[in-house]
Design a protein that fits this description.
25% of the residues are buried. The protein has helices at residues 6-10, 18-32, 41-57, 60-69, 81-87, 92-96, 99-105, 136-141, 283-288, 347-359, 366-374; strands at residues 128-134, 143-154, 170-171, 180-185, 188-193, 202-203, 216-228, 236-240, 256-262, 268-271, 274-282, 290-296, 299-305, 314-317, 333-340. The chain is of the alpha+beta class. The radius of gyration is 31 Å and the shape is elongated. It binds zinc ion (2 copies).
Length: 375
């Protein structure tokens, strides 16, 4: 499949400035984010595409490579989405600021009510999203992951008040708390946001030097343990209440969303809670039946291949799949028989196969009989 042009995906020109790229991406996230389009595969794909485009074009180094070499600049596989997904922390607060909490609450997520403010009208902290990837084997049993996130924490020096004396904000003296000042220009009077309090109406008069009066400080290495439940579906977001950004000046914390992506496994193919695993079986084993060892997500088990097993037939091992997301029971493991025809025989094997050939009457096989009648 040909990759789409990153600039076209974001709908920006080649000369676009970073702010234009951010703005374009913001619009596309609001449109295609999986949480706004539950179960919509097309939207999910689109979201991945535009996010990939954004991750490249918003990074000056990657953008330079892309401008020069196109998709080929990221190796034969192109931009490695799955790998980058686990590495890149997409901090949506960077592009959304505080509107990110609105974005979730508007979709029925019980964040904090309209505007991301608490009942007292205080501005809440931003919600954050962090993406991690887990292996299918980890999904089989559930896993605890340590993640490091960058977030705002309350300033310990001023106890999140922003002021040295911990008295918090006071009414701005320049605008008497109105947040606006009126300037007369000739016949006109123009209302402008108050330059002293930046339109807030309140101001910290003795700003804390540790947080410069904001009441919060950035913590780039916040460590948090995340329990990934067994059986989780790829793309699921786990919500960790109150683990997002601290709010400016002591409002409620935002939430942290951990979006989990399940890596593809070389051996096991997932179908909801069932697992398919292809297992090589020799012709003789299939003809006579045999006991073989098969891998499962949690170790090997022995199983019986019935006599006459056909190529590509599926043998079910109950309850050896993934735990169901409903919390009850497990899926099954399907062993897919992959018949192996020997390409090299010992002298003795050849003699024995020849004896079978002499005995075998192909015309007695119902399949061959039918085939011959039809040609
Ligand atoms: Zn402080
Ligand atoms: Zn003011």
């Amino acid at each position: 499949m040909d990759k789409k042009d990153y600039y076209e995906l974001l709908g920006v020109g080649r000369e676009a400035l970073i702010d234009d790229i951010k703005k374009a991406y913001r619009g596309l996230v609001l449109k295609y984010h999986p949480d706004r389009n539950p179960g919509n595969k097309e939207a999910e794909e689109k979201f991945k595409e535009v996010t990939e485009a954004y991750e490249v074009l918003s990074d000056p180094e990657k953008r330079k490579i892309y401008d020069q070499y196109g998709h080929a600049g990221f190796g034969p596989q192109g931009f490695d989405w799955t790998e980058d997904f686990s590495r890149v922390r997409t901090d949506f607060s960077d592009i959304f600021g505080d509107i990110f909490s609105n974005f979730f609450s508007s979709e029925g997520f019980n964040v904090r009510g309209v505007g991301g403010k608490d009942r007292g009208g205080r501005q809440g902290g931003s919600d954050l999203e962090y993406r991690i990837s887990v292996s299918l084997k980890e999904v089989a049993v559930g896993v605890e992951k340590q993640v490091h996130i960058s977030r705002f924490d309350g300033c310990p020096v001023c106890e999140s008040t922003g002021s040295k004396t911990k008295k918090g904000k006071t009414v701005c003296s320049a605008c008497q708390g109105r947040g606006q000042v009126v300037r007369n220009q000739g016949f006109f009077s123009i209302a402008q946001p108050c330059p002293k309090c930046k339109g807030q109406g309140e101001i910290v008069t003795d700003p804390c030097s540790n947080c410069r009066g904001t009441g919060r400080v950035r913590n780039n290495m916040h460590r948090i343990a995340v329990k990934i439940p067994a059986g989780i579906e790829s793309g699921t977001s786990l919500r960790l209440r109150g683990e997002g950004d601290a709010a400016p000046n002591g409002g409620p914390r935002g939430d942290l969303y951990i979006t989990v992506f399940v890596e593809k496994d070389k051996r096991f193919e997932r179908r909801n809670s069932d697992i398919i695993c292809e297992v090589p079986v020799t012709v003789v084993q299939a003809v006579l039946g045999a006991e073989i060892e098969v891998p499962t997500l949690t170790g090997k088990v022995k199983m019986r291949i019935p006599a006459g097993a056909q190529n590509n037939s599926m043998l079910r091992l109950r309850n050896l799949g993934l735990p169901r997301t409903t919390g009850y029971g497990k899926g099954d493991l399907f062993v897919k028989v992959a018949l192996i025809v020997p390409s090299r025989l010992t002298r003795q094997e050849k003699v024995l196969y020849q004896q079978i050939a002499d005995l075998e009457k192909p015309e007695n096989s119902p399949e061959i009989k039918k085939f011959r009648e039809e040609i």
